[in-house]
Amino acid sequence: MSRILVTGSADGLGRAAADALLSEGHEVVVHARNERRAADLAELADRGAHLVVGDFADRDAVRGVAAELADAEPLDAVVHNAGVWSGPAVMPVNIVAPYLLTALLPGPRRLVYLSSGSHFGGRPSLTGVDWRGVSAGSYADSKLFVTTLAAAVARLRPAVLSNAVDPGWVPTKMGGPGAPDDLELGHRTQVWLAAGDAPEALTSGGYWYHRERQEPHRAVHDEAFQDRLLYALAEETGTEL
Fold this sequence. Notes:
Blueprint: E1 3-6, H1 12-23, E2 27-32, H2 35-38, H3 42-46, E3 50-53, H4 59-70, E4 77-80, H5 90-104, E5 110-114, H6 139-156, E6 161-165, H7 183-195, E7 207-209, E8 212-214, H8 223-237
Parallel strand pairs: 1-2, 1-4, 2-3, 4-5, 5-6, 6-7
Antiparallel strand pairs: 7-8
Helix pairs in contact: 1-7, 4-5, 5-6, 6-8
């Protein structure tokens, strides 16, 4: 059994993934943005989940969570699920936080990054990106960036299984009640990639939708764009991958 962190696990896809992993017998670390949201995880905690708390819109909070995790038992996998749809927190939460956690937690051998079909509408340009979230960020751009991060990690850390997942447009708080995709299918690919032992789940560098590997935006596997993105994030955060 594995020890797995699921970020943004107070509700939606993260909650479903954490619940499924616990049911499979894994040791799960759940994450909430604040103490109020942490109260929503009481049922998972009663079943043995460990809890970390930190607002991923705040870089110092991300570093604090990373330090807390580094002092605990090593993680086998991280599901980078935390995300926001709109507003100033888009870039800090959707790309800066998973980048920092990836850089600061070098131990996990499986990394799963939550992408979106919206990443196809993202712009492969880093000019003028507001990494600090002073103004509202582009969700599509943030998902293109995090999908590219997954591919870059797969290239630069060959011992790590790094993949991106499009869960579909599912009826979560973010997706809305009218979303047409299946919530059950939406989280199962993350669970499969984080802990599964099927040959397909033991591959790296993929962009997945419902356990099917698909072709992402052409910029995702552009190594020059990957390198520019990593350089920009390293410069911005003062932390190299």
